[in-house]
Amino acid sequence: MIDTQIRQLRSTLFWSFFALGIGLLILAALQTFYGLWPLRRVRQDVAAIRSGAKTRIDENFPVEVRPLTEEINQLLAHSEEQAEEARRHAGNLAHALKTPLTVITNAATARSPDLPETVFREAIVMRRQVDHHLARARAIGRRASVHARATVWDSLQSVQRAVDRLYEKVTVDIAGDKTAQVRVERQDLDEMLGNLVENAAKYGGGRVFVTVERQAPMIDIIIEDDGEGIPKQQRETLFQRGARLDTDKPGTGLGLAIVRDVAEIYGGTITLEESEDLGGLLARLSLPAG
Description:
By secondary structure, the chain is of the alpha+beta class.
């Protein structure tokens, strides 16, 4: 009697646990299927974007998946912005080169007696445009690196050594925060500071003073010279490509235009003011702190 009851109990427990196991497996499968369904939708939307059927991932996703879809959409928007910027950049370069090429072609077709002078003059114009657009293209390409960091003091010391060799009668002094870093690639920072310090050395009276200041969330790099300065109404024109106030000294008139374009690409600014200490021009370059 007892043995029969034990066998019945064992049979009941076996089928109960068997049914429980089957039920758990079914529930796990359903949970996996429905739990991962949003990710399968994300995969389908990404495939639709790749095929051109969509441009963005839908926003009606669960809260757990929404951060992923938002990041993907931001990445897509960033890629589209860069592609549009590249197309606009190529169009601007083509438009800038079209006029000098037309002038050269017309002079050659007409067998103009001053053809060599025309070719030389327009070649300089084209070189200015190419240099300017190449600087912008390099900065835009390197801007994608979120880890870009450069120490301002190291870059200034490098520029100081170069300017000392080029302008032996010019004294360049540096002061301020030696540890300040900016979110800019070192090569682009060198190019901006090189243009500003060289301009100060070239057009100043022999003294250049550079100050590095931390103005959170920016780093201000102030370049002052003891030259004659520039009238306030003429300062903005210096940022135009090819603009030069002193044509007796060598240059292409692209330095400040390149500095402003590269600074704006990284989220910075460049302004021209009057130096209270030295009496000449003061250039204030503000860049995001690293």
